Protein backbone atom coordinates (compact mmCIF):
# COMPACT_ATOMS: atom_id res chain seq x y z
CA UNK A 1 0.00 0.00 0.00
CA UNK A 2 1.35 3.42 -0.95
CA UNK A 3 1.51 6.05 1.76
CA UNK A 4 0.61 9.62 0.88
CA UNK A 5 1.53 11.33 4.14
CA UNK A 6 4.39 13.72 4.79
CA UNK A 7 6.84 10.83 5.15
CA UNK A 8 5.43 8.64 2.39
CA UNK A 9 6.71 7.79 -1.06
CA UNK A 10 4.73 10.60 -2.69
CA UNK A 11 6.51 13.12 -0.47
CA UNK A 12 9.86 11.53 -1.25
CA UNK A 13 9.12 11.79 -4.97
CA UNK A 14 8.19 15.45 -4.52
CA UNK A 15 11.45 16.14 -2.67
CA UNK A 16 13.51 14.30 -5.27
CA UNK A 17 11.80 16.19 -8.09
CA UNK A 18 12.40 19.48 -6.29
CA UNK A 19 16.05 18.65 -5.73
CA UNK A 20 16.52 17.63 -9.37
CA UNK A 21 14.86 20.81 -10.64
CA UNK A 22 16.89 22.89 -8.18
CA UNK A 23 20.18 21.44 -9.41
CA UNK A 24 19.14 21.89 -13.05
CA UNK A 25 18.15 25.51 -12.44
CA UNK A 26 21.40 26.29 -10.61
CA UNK A 27 23.42 24.73 -13.43
CA UNK A 28 21.63 26.89 -16.01
CA UNK A 29 22.09 30.02 -13.90
CA UNK A 30 25.75 29.20 -13.38
CA UNK A 31 26.25 28.69 -17.09
CA UNK A 32 24.50 31.97 -17.92
CA UNK A 33 26.18 34.08 -15.28
CA UNK A 34 29.69 32.63 -15.07
CA UNK A 35 30.69 32.21 -18.71
CA UNK A 36 33.20 34.70 -20.09
CA UNK A 37 31.92 37.41 -22.40
CA UNK A 38 33.94 39.18 -25.04
CA UNK A 39 33.08 42.84 -24.82
CA UNK A 40 35.04 45.90 -25.82
CA UNK A 41 34.04 47.96 -22.81
CA UNK A 42 33.25 46.79 -19.28
CA UNK A 43 31.69 49.14 -16.71
CA UNK A 44 33.13 49.47 -13.23
CA UNK A 45 31.72 47.16 -10.56
CA UNK A 46 28.88 48.62 -8.51
CA UNK A 47 29.42 48.22 -4.79
CA UNK A 48 27.02 50.98 -3.71
CA UNK A 49 23.53 49.61 -2.91
CA UNK A 50 20.65 50.93 -5.04
CA UNK A 51 22.97 52.97 -7.31
CA UNK A 52 22.30 51.05 -10.53
CA UNK A 53 18.59 50.69 -9.67
CA UNK A 54 18.21 54.46 -9.30
CA UNK A 55 20.21 55.00 -12.52
CA UNK A 56 17.86 52.65 -14.38
CA UNK A 57 14.80 54.38 -12.92
CA UNK A 58 16.21 57.74 -14.07
CA UNK A 59 16.34 56.45 -17.67
CA UNK A 60 12.58 56.03 -17.70
CA UNK A 61 9.98 53.53 -16.52
CA UNK A 62 9.98 51.30 -19.61
CA UNK A 63 13.77 50.97 -19.70
CA UNK A 64 13.83 50.34 -15.96
CA UNK A 65 11.25 47.56 -16.26
CA UNK A 66 13.17 45.95 -19.11
CA UNK A 67 16.53 45.99 -17.36
CA UNK A 68 15.42 45.24 -13.80
CA UNK A 69 13.08 42.31 -14.46
CA UNK A 70 15.93 40.08 -15.64
CA UNK A 71 17.73 39.96 -12.29
CA UNK A 72 14.41 39.63 -10.43
CA UNK A 73 13.33 36.65 -12.54
CA UNK A 74 16.75 34.96 -12.70
CA UNK A 75 16.67 33.36 -9.25
CA UNK A 76 12.91 33.59 -8.63
CA UNK A 77 12.37 29.83 -9.15
CA UNK A 78 14.53 29.24 -6.07
CA UNK A 79 11.69 30.68 -3.98
CA UNK A 80 9.68 27.58 -4.88
CA UNK A 81 12.40 24.99 -5.50
CA UNK A 82 14.24 25.42 -2.19
CA UNK A 83 11.16 24.67 -0.02
CA UNK A 84 10.11 21.93 -2.44
CA UNK A 85 13.45 20.18 -2.16
CA UNK A 86 13.36 20.49 1.65
CA UNK A 87 9.97 18.77 1.72
CA UNK A 88 8.68 20.41 4.89
CA UNK A 89 4.92 20.36 4.63
CA UNK A 90 4.16 21.58 8.15
CA UNK A 91 6.78 24.35 8.37
CA UNK A 92 6.13 27.73 9.91
CA UNK A 93 5.48 30.29 7.13
CA UNK A 94 7.78 32.89 8.70
CA UNK A 95 10.60 30.42 9.24
CA UNK A 96 10.22 29.01 5.75
CA UNK A 97 10.27 32.49 4.24
CA UNK A 98 13.34 33.52 6.23
CA UNK A 99 15.17 30.29 5.41
CA UNK A 100 14.37 30.54 1.70
CA UNK A 101 15.22 34.24 1.35
CA UNK A 102 18.50 33.76 3.24
CA UNK A 103 19.49 30.82 1.04
CA UNK A 104 18.55 32.77 -2.09
CA UNK A 105 20.58 35.77 -0.95
CA UNK A 106 23.59 33.57 -0.25
CA UNK A 107 23.34 31.92 -3.68
CA UNK A 108 23.05 35.34 -5.36
CA UNK A 109 26.04 36.61 -3.37
CA UNK A 110 28.08 33.53 -4.30
CA UNK A 111 27.31 34.07 -7.98
CA UNK A 112 28.35 37.72 -7.77
CA UNK A 113 31.57 36.83 -5.95
CA UNK A 114 32.39 34.17 -8.54
CA UNK A 115 31.81 36.74 -11.30
CA UNK A 116 34.77 38.76 -10.08
CA UNK A 117 37.10 36.18 -11.64
CA UNK A 118 35.26 35.85 -14.96
CA UNK A 119 36.35 38.09 -17.85
CA UNK A 120 33.59 40.37 -19.07
CA UNK A 121 31.31 39.79 -16.06
CA UNK A 122 30.91 42.72 -13.69
CA UNK A 123 29.72 42.23 -10.10
CA UNK A 124 26.84 44.45 -9.01
CA UNK A 125 25.44 44.58 -5.47
CA UNK A 126 22.04 45.62 -6.82
CA UNK A 127 21.83 42.35 -8.69
CA UNK A 128 22.06 40.54 -5.36
CA UNK A 129 19.22 42.69 -4.02
CA UNK A 130 17.05 42.10 -7.10
CA UNK A 131 17.75 38.35 -7.12
CA UNK A 132 16.77 38.15 -3.45
CA UNK A 133 13.61 40.15 -4.14
CA UNK A 134 12.68 37.66 -6.86
CA UNK A 135 13.17 34.72 -4.49
CA UNK A 136 11.00 36.39 -1.84
CA UNK A 137 8.18 37.31 -4.23
CA UNK A 138 8.08 33.82 -5.78
CA UNK A 139 8.04 32.22 -2.33
CA UNK A 140 5.19 34.43 -1.12
CA UNK A 141 3.19 33.93 -4.30
CA UNK A 142 3.38 30.15 -4.53
CA UNK A 143 4.55 28.28 -1.43
CA UNK A 144 1.88 29.09 1.20
CA UNK A 145 -0.98 28.22 -1.15
CA UNK A 146 0.64 25.00 -2.35
CA UNK A 147 1.45 23.88 1.18
CA UNK A 148 -2.12 24.42 2.36
CA UNK A 149 -3.47 22.53 -0.67
CA UNK A 150 -1.09 19.64 -0.06
CA UNK A 151 -1.95 19.53 3.66
CA UNK A 152 -5.67 19.37 2.83
CA UNK A 153 -5.01 16.65 0.26
CA UNK A 154 -2.99 14.51 2.68
CA UNK A 155 -5.60 14.91 5.42
CA UNK A 156 -8.31 13.92 2.94
CA UNK A 157 -6.34 10.86 1.82
CA UNK A 158 -5.74 9.78 5.39
CA UNK A 159 -9.43 9.98 6.13
CA UNK A 160 -11.02 10.74 9.43
CA UNK A 161 -9.25 9.86 12.62
CA UNK A 162 -10.80 6.70 14.05
CA UNK A 163 -12.77 7.25 17.23
CA UNK A 164 -11.98 4.95 20.10
CA UNK A 165 -14.89 4.32 22.46
CA UNK A 166 -14.25 5.26 26.01
CA UNK A 167 -12.40 2.55 27.83
CA UNK A 168 -13.78 1.80 31.25
CA UNK A 169 -11.64 0.90 34.23
CA UNK A 170 -11.35 -2.83 34.71
CA UNK A 171 -12.74 -4.28 37.90
CA UNK A 172 -10.17 -4.56 40.64
CA UNK A 173 -8.68 -8.01 40.80
CA UNK A 174 -7.14 -9.59 43.81
CA UNK A 175 -3.76 -10.18 42.24
CA UNK A 176 -1.64 -10.37 45.34
CA UNK A 177 -3.91 -12.45 47.45
CA UNK A 178 -2.45 -14.85 49.96
CA UNK A 179 -4.43 -17.80 48.56
CA UNK A 180 -2.10 -18.29 45.60
CA UNK A 181 1.43 -19.46 45.85
CA UNK A 182 3.87 -18.67 43.09
CA UNK A 183 6.68 -21.02 44.13
UniProtKB/TrEMBL annotation:
Question: Among its keywords, does the record have Transmembrane helix?
Answer: yes
Domain of life of the source: Bacteria
Question: Which residues are in the VanZ-like domain?
Answer: 23-141
Keyword Zinc, does the record have it?
Answer: no
Q: Where are the transmembrane segments?
A: 12-34, 64-84, 96-116, 128-146
Question: Which keywords label this protein?
Answer: Membrane, Transmembrane, Transmembrane helix
Protein name in UniProt: VanZ family protein
Organism name: Streptomyces halobius
Amino acid sequence: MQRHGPGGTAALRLRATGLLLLVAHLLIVGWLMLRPRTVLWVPAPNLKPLASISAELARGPWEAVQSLTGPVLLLAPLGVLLPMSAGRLYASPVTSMARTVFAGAMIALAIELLQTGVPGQVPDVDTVLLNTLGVAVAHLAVVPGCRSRLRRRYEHLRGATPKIPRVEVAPQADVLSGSRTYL
